[in-house]
């Protein structure tokens, strides 16, 4: 039996009042359906009502929508429903449907922007797994990084010291007998050949342990505060090297062009082109290095002021940051910089700032971002 138009309107009115059970019973009695069939019919009707409710021209200002969105982001959907019910004269069902629809749209919009963070997290986890088996290192939970296994180094150095001591004693015992036989002289020289490199190794390991302990102690003494300043690391040697290299390329290019004008050849043209490309790339790296060293950050709780040449150019909040990445720049031949480079990404995956910072600032910034639940992709290894 088909329902009349007035019956459809009555069912919709029941659904808008949140009386789903009454609507199912009404459909069951009117159409002679089973309870399961009546429930399926009402569920379809609810979906239609939801779509109609969302598509209605409800007068909601941009400010109100932003406020509702903020409540949804904070998982306060009930407060959002109450706000619409009280201030926009919606029924509870209409308010709930509006919030649910808006929540779905927000989740869809955010899914793409979260892909980048997910990829970074995956890369970070891969990096962690890759370095989990680093020989001679242990993972420090306080620093959230790998540190040298100093206890093992101390034991190794102690063994080296005892071997060195035994060899020195043997050599001293042999001194009175050096002139007697060639065998004693050879044995003495053999002992001496071991003493010198072992002594150098012992000193090197001892110094490494000392400076590592000093570095770890310094990091542990740093206290995280709500307000602090971070400045870019000014690598004067790198800038000086770039200037020298750039000057050398200009000189070589000048000579190459001079030769090319006198004796044209495709080989000379190719060499000049390669030199020109190398010079342009070097200039780009040099300019970027100069620009990045002028950045600094003013941290004040959830607010971060980005400064360029001591002038604030941007103020960002923690909830507007998608991800923060720490990594070491590659120097070629498997070498990496000893200081970390930091990149801060917004929700649209744009780099807000890129800075090379000190180990101290890296440690403080990482703890600060983790404190405010900002996603951190850490590919930097301190030691």
Task: Please summarize what this structure is.
By secondary structure, the chain is α+β, with helices and mostly antiparallel strands. It contains 11 helices and 12 strands.
What are the SSEs and their pairings?
Layout: H1 5-16, H2 20-31, H3 35-55, H4 62-73, H5 77-87, H6 92-131, E1 137-140, E2 145-148, H7 150-174, H8 182-221, E3 227-231, H9 236-262, H10 266-292, E4 295-300, E5 303-308, E6 311-317, E7 321-327, E8 330-332, E9 335-336, E10 341-346, E11 351-356, H11 359-371, E12 376-378
Parallel strand pairs: 7-12
Antiparallel strand pairs: 1-2, 3-4, 4-5, 5-6, 7-10, 8-9, 10-11
Describe this structure in words.
With 383 residues, the chain is of the alpha+beta class. The protein folds into four domains: 105 residues, no CATH class; 72 residues; 100 residues, Pleckstrin-homology domain (PH domain)/Phosphotyrosine-binding domain (PTB) (PH-domain like, Roll); 58 residues. It contains eleven helices and twelve strands. A four-stranded antiparallel sheet has the order 3-4-5-6, with no helix packed on it. The protein has a four-stranded mixed sheet with strand order 11-10-7-12, with helices on both faces. Strands 1-2 form a two-stranded antiparallel ribbon. The longest helix has 40 residues. The chain starts with a helix and ends in a 5-residue tail after the last strand. About 7% of the residues have low confidence.
């Amino acid at each position: 039996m088909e329902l009349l138009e007035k019956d459809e309107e009555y069912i919709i009115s029941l659904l808008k009042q949140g009386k789903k059970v009454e609507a199912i019973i009404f459909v069951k009695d009117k159409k002679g359906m089973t309870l399961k069939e009546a429930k399926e019919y009402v569920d379809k009707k609810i979906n239609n009502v939801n779509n109609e409710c969302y598509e209605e021209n409800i007068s909601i200002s941009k400010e109100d929508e932003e406020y509702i969105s903020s409540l949804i982001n904070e998982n306060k959907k009930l407060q959002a429903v109450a706000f619409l019910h009280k201030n926009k004269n919606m029924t509870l069902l209409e308010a709930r449907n509006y919030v649910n629809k808006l929540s779905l749209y927000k989740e869809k919009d955010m899914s793409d922007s979260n892909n980048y963070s997910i990829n970074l997290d995956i890369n970070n986890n891969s990096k962690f797994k890759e370095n989990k088996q680093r020989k001679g290192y242990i993972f420090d939970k306080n620093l959230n990084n790998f540190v040298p296994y100093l206890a093992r180094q101390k034991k190794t150095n102690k063994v080296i010291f005892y071997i060195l001591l035994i060899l020195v004693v043997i050599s001293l015992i042999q001194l009175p007998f050096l002139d007697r036989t060639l065998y004693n002289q050879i044995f003495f020289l053999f002992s001496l050949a071991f003493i010198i490199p072992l002594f150098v190794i012992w000193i090197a390991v001892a110094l490494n342990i000392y400076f590592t302990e000093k570095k770890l102690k310094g990091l542990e003494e740093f206290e995280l505060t709500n307000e602090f300043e971070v400045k870019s690391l000014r690598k004067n040697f790198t800038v000086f090297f770039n200037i020298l290299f750039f000057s050398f390329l200009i000189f070589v290019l000048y000579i190459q062009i001079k030769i090319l004008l006198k004796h044209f050849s495709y080989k000379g043209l190719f060499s000049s082109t390669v030199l020109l490309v190398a010079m342009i790339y070097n200039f780009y790296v040099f300019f970027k290095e100069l620009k990045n060293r002028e950045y600094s950050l003013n941290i004040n709780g959830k607010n971060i002021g980005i400064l360029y040449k001591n002038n604030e150019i941007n103020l960002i909040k923690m909830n507007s940051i998608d991800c923060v990445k720490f990594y070491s720049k590659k120097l070629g031949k498997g070498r990496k910089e000893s200081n970390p480079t930091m990149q801060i990404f917004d929700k649209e995956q744009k780099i807000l700032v890129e800075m090379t910072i000190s180990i101290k600032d890296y440690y403080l910034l990482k703890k600060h971002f983790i404190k405010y639940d900002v996603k951190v992709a850490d590919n930097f290894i301190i030691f």
